[in-house]
Target: Transcriptional regulator
Amino acid sequence: MQLKKYTDYGLRILMYLASRNDAKLTTIREICEVFDLSANHVNKVVHHLGQLGLITTKRGKNGGFSLSKTPETIHLDYVIRQLEGDEPWIDCYSSYCVAVPACKLRGLILRGKEQFYQYLHEYTVADLMSGSGAELATIFRQRLTTANAE
Model:
């Protein structure tokens, strides 16, 4: 299984916001520069994170976004389920699958998927930052400084 780039971007954005220790709003441009991403993709992810209530967005000249919840309250299973769309990992009802009546694969995959999400529920965005939060903040600032110098 591989997470979509969309989900990857969402997790990176949340980590970046969690690394900030100031009240300044983050911009789409800033995220694009730090992670070398397309503004179009970042816009979509930021909009979705806002709809989920994970970030607060402000439009306009001095606009931007910030975390609306503490990193300790943002569970990874929730973020990934929401950004991935929680679609089935296998398609047992497609025309090419003739084994459905006797196949146990679907049940095994569903159980594995639930165990995956149960495991991720034990972790939050804060856990991604613990021990390395200051180091990540430094890396993000260096990337931003480098991007602005170019």
Observations:
- The longest strand covers residues 55-58.
- The mean pLDDT is 86.
- The chain has seven helices and two strands.
